[in-house]
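Researcher: Re-running this chain for the archive, since the previous output was lost when a drive failed. Same request as before.
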Amino acid sequence: MKRSRRVLPALLLSLSLTLSSAGAAVLHGYREGLAKAEEDGLWGFADVSGAIVVPIQYQSVLDFTLGTALVQTGNKLGLIRQDGTYLLDPEYDTLENLGYGLYLAQQGNSWGVVSILAFPGEDGAATQAFFPIQYDTVRIGQMDGLEVLLLTQDGVETVTPLASLPQLMVERDVPSARFPLLKGRLPSFSDVEDRDWFSVWVDIAYNLSLMEGVGGGRFAPDQTLTVAEALKLAAFLESQATGDTFHLQSLSGTPWYRTCVTYCEARGIITPGAFPDVQRPVTRAEMAGIFAATSLARSLPERNSLSQVRASLPDVSPEDPAAEAIYSLYAKGILSGTDGALTFAPEAPLTRAEAAAIVSRMARAEQRVDLW
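Model: Regenerated structure tokens:
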């Protein structure tokens, strides 16, 4: 099946709209803050300033969707995130998105399913082979009205309902399995443009049902988040990460946020009475304290050196009440600062766009930030 290798260039031609050029590279459209960049028949990606941020080196690329993009090099397909890091190395003849962070994969005459995030295999070693690439065929079909994955080897067919994959991922300890990406679920907000830095985070936060719009087809990215809204986000992250059902409940009480406050108090995220006025804007320092106290944040591995973080933040002192919470979120790849100097601005309010970035990185391991 060579379909994927033929479709990639065709999709590029049909979806691209030339908007501008940077040097010799021609930029084609923007999706999630990055444009495809073409030069001499090769492709990469540029940011909104026109700077090339993913090197022009690929035979073909597709637009970024939910923070990842398919690329082709050496006649093989791989998957990258927005800094160009490979999530799936370019070693596949076919990669087809199944949703949930899983891809149907082909190598030569063998088929399987791979995960964009490594997890412990049966021997304890890290693997990305969710179903080993050893099957004669793997395809999506229908059975009793359900979409199923059909894996065939030596005439024996294994049937796995697609809807069961997220639970299988949880059982196999795939990172972020409790926050599975849903294929095709993307927002369309009138106040979020594809050139906006936050568009990728709005897409992911919406896809994961962590954030919705404010009504009228708007997301209100610059709107200030209240303490109550920050506690709701923390409660939903905590609930989903621990596998309870609070995040599935309708918040229809009066006032709507009372159950979120109570839940956060019960889970030890905040102490009772910590926020007498939850309808005021939340500061970035308060946000860090709230989110860092979730069991999800506490369970995350360190991605950046904590000692280097402590020495690098220009406006956070070890004596600040929220300092350790702020440091920990930088170290775990959740925070990256408001500028290239890693400035945190602890007393500034938190916008909905910034909140979308934070909850997306907390939920999805492949989106966490490498600072150095």
